[in-house]
UniProtKB/TrEMBL annotation:
<dbReference type="InterPro" id="IPR036390">
    <property type="entry name" value="WH_DNA-bd_sf"/>
</dbReference>
<dbReference type="InterPro" id="IPR036388">
    <property type="entry name" value="WH-like_DNA-bd_sf"/>
</dbReference>
<dbReference type="InterPro" id="IPR050313">
    <property type="entry name" value="Carb_Metab_HTH_regulators"/>
</dbReference>
<dbReference type="Pfam" id="PF00455">
    <property type="entry name" value="DeoRC"/>
</dbReference>
<protein>
    <submittedName>
        <fullName>Transcriptional regulator, DeoR family</fullName>
    </submittedName>
</protein>
<dbReference type="Pfam" id="PF08220">
    <property type="entry name" value="HTH_DeoR"/>
</dbReference>
<dbReference type="InterPro" id="IPR001034">
    <property type="entry name" value="DeoR_HTH"/>
</dbReference>
<dbReference type="GO" id="GO:0003700">
    <property type="term" value="F:DNA-binding transcription factor activity"/>
</dbReference>
<dbReference type="InterPro" id="IPR014036">
    <property type="entry name" value="DeoR-like_C"/>
</dbReference>
<keyword id="KW-0805">Transcription regulation</keyword>
<dbReference type="InterPro" id="IPR037171">
    <property type="entry name" value="NagB/RpiA_transferase-like"/>
</dbReference>
<feature type="domain" description="HTH deoR-type">
    <location>
        <begin position="3"/>
        <end position="58"/>
    </location>
</feature>
<keyword id="KW-0804">Transcription</keyword>
Length: 252
């Protein structure tokens, strides 16, 4: 198991239990105690946990996990991405993608389809799509947000001004019928808003853990969203509220 996979697994166990032990992690992950200690030190330096004698505990403040550690719900995200790809019909000639694990899965699916113009502010998505001969790629520019590999801020916002797209797919950190769509960072939220304003149709991709939740910064009111694609773990009462607000809900 690579270190990046171990770090993601450690954070997952910490989220579930609130604390972990070095020996328990070494046994569960099939690695040495010394490697686990180095992993815990690395995560503490990133303020993602607090080490204790013989283990670690969750930090009191909930931090946004960097994209490279967000490995959970892989199957659900793949299913959501597959459902989203079905919306890219022959009549769709241009799409926009912001950053995130689910939009990254979608980008990989679109890379093997017909000719398509793709606008993105995500460096990792741009890297995946750049060598694909069927993709006409446009990258916004902007300041780099390391947590999500996204280009955000005034340069990105200006690049999006005047662009018209058929579909925009947005990954979000929360979607709520009253609170709208939200994310952790206010600068990212404004760039996401500029991206959705380019679209004839806005599709939100959100696994069930994000439905009915709100993050710090609002991207837009729920009225800006045409479709939300989620998975079967999403709370049904929250989905009904979204439907009541006029949003089409797709459960992948």
């Amino acid at each position: 198991m690579r270190q990046e996979q171990r770090l993601a697994a450690i954070l997952g166990k910490l989220a579930d239990a609130g604390s972990v032990t070095v020996t328990g992690l070494a046994e569960d992950l099939g690695t040495s105690v010394a490697s686990i200690r180095r992993d815990l030190q690395s995560l503490e330096e990133q303020k993602l946990l607090k080490r204790t004698h013989g283990g670690a505990v969750a930090v009191e403040v909930i931090y946004e996990l960097p994209l490279r550690y967000r490995l959970g719900r892989r199957e659900e995200k793949r299913q959501i991405a597959e459902a989203a790809a079905q919306l890219v019909t022959e009549s769709v000639h241009s799409v926009g993608l912001n950053g995130g694990t689910t939009t990254t899965e979608l980008a990989r699916l679109l890379a093997s389809t017909r000719s398509l113009k793709v606008v993105t502010n995500a460096l990792n998505i741009a890297s995946d799509l750049c060598p694909r001969p069927t993709i006409d790629l446009v990258v916004t520019g902007g300041g780099v947000r390391p947590e999500s590999y996204e280009l955000v801020g005034p340069i990105a916002d200006r690049a999006l001004a005047g662009i018209s797209l058929d579909l925009v797919f947005l990954g979000v950190d929360g979607i709520d019928a009253r609170g709208g769509i939200t994310t952790h960072d206010e600068v990212e939220a404004h760039t996401d808003y500029c991206l959705l304003c380019t679209a004839d149709r806005v599709v939100v991709l959100a696994d069930g853990s994000k439905v009915g939740k709100r993050a710090f910064s609002r991207i837009a009111d729920i009225g800006a969203v045409h479709v939300v694609i989620t998975d079967a773990s999403a709370p049904e009462e929250e989905l009904e509220k979204l439907r009541g607000a006029g949003v089409e809900v797709v459960v992948a």
